[in-house]
């Protein structure tokens, strides 16, 4: 059993042997199991209620795919382009996704459990009603300029990620570990950050958010003001 740890989050990872996998080049109409998917181009294809299980996907072009329903289970995905893709109602479980691109991707009603995103780009991505049903970690990821709304991501790890200009709306991040992440210009209601874990050097960014949220007028006293 393979596991990895990010902060206090332990994730169960897939344990695949490429020698046990069968090469897959064309996108079939039914489920894909135990497949070795390398250097394929499925850009703009549509997937509906399909399951992809026990597969290794490497250097694939899955940009602008539309995937509704179905499951991604026990897969390793690396150096794959999913930019502009739309995933709706998909369950992602026991997967390791590394060095992949989700720029402008839309995840809607997606359920995550035992998922690691490492060194991935989610810039300008939209997450709506995404939920963590188990351990989830983003490590060394770029999440800048994204929009997350109505997500339930309590207890996830967001370690050493770029969260600058990320916008949160009605999200639950209770206990989320944000240590080491860049929070510059993070836009979030204070309630969305209730219970998150930070380091001391991240407090100035949190203070700025609190000042903005409360409409506090911060002024510098002039010498004339101090003399009266």
UniProtKB/TrEMBL annotation:
SUPFAM superfamilies for the chain: Pentapeptide repeat-like
Gene3D superfamilies: E3 ubiquitin-protein ligase SopA (2.160.20.80)
InterPro entries documented for this protein: 5peptide_repeat, Pentapeptide-BTB/POZ_domain
Domain of life: Bacteria
UniProt-listed Pfam families: Pentapeptide
PANTHER family, per database record: BTB_POZ DOMAIN-CONTAINING PROTEIN KCTD9
Name the UniProt record assigns to this protein: Pentapeptide repeat-containing protein
Organism: Plantactinospora siamensis
